[in-house]
Amino acid sequence: xxxxxxxxxxxxxxxxxxxKRRNCAECRRGPLPLLVLEEGKPWCLECAxxxxxxxxxxxxxALTRRAREASGLSxxxxxxxxxxxRYERQGVLVEExxxxxxxxxxxxDAEARRRRRARDARRRAExxxxxxxxxxxxxxxxxxxxxxxxxxxxxxxxxxxxxGRVGRSAAGRALSPEAVTAAVRASVRHLExxxxxxxxxxxxxxxxxRRIAGRVEAVLREWSLREAA
Length: 229
Hints:
Layout: E1 14-16, E2 36-38, E3 41-43, E4 53-57, H1 61-70, E5 75-81, E6 86-95, H2 96-142, H3 148-158, H4 170-173, H5 177-191, H6 195-200, H7 205-225
Parallel strand pairs: 1-5
Antiparallel strand pairs: 2-3, 4-6, 5-6
């Protein structure tokens, strides 16, 4: 077996996952999945008075911390990594009641986090809806000829959270006329002109924009000069 590590104050009890087959020096049972070393001899958990503890694998920091805090007796389980030449923590042994209590507390925390995430999602959805309404209203103010349903569609598309579109930019959130106009212009470019087809036909983007620029500006002038029916 590899050299025994020196336990730290927080890891006063060490239990080993042996890399070789070992039998208990007291009861002779084996091979042992876990063992304690006393005076250089391997002891099974039962003979070492640790048989009532349950194994909690590493991975959940909060669960491990709470289980150890609630457990009157605990031990750290380690295994020697030959490639790295060191002992590595595999988990802990704790009292079963302590583990159950820790699991209940972690589940309660998880439920609280779930409810908080749900509240935050509702709040963000409400904020997004109010912002989209304000964006649509600003479109209608700048372009009274733009149909109301179209204005709502443009606002909804431009203001999707996390999209990086103009509505989520600083100028867009401030409802600047330049940002609002840019969103309307983009919508007109795609829906009122053959821009998308030009791109599909292999026309370079700058050239495609040049070809449809007149039509885009004509629609914007029309929408800015008259109210929709």
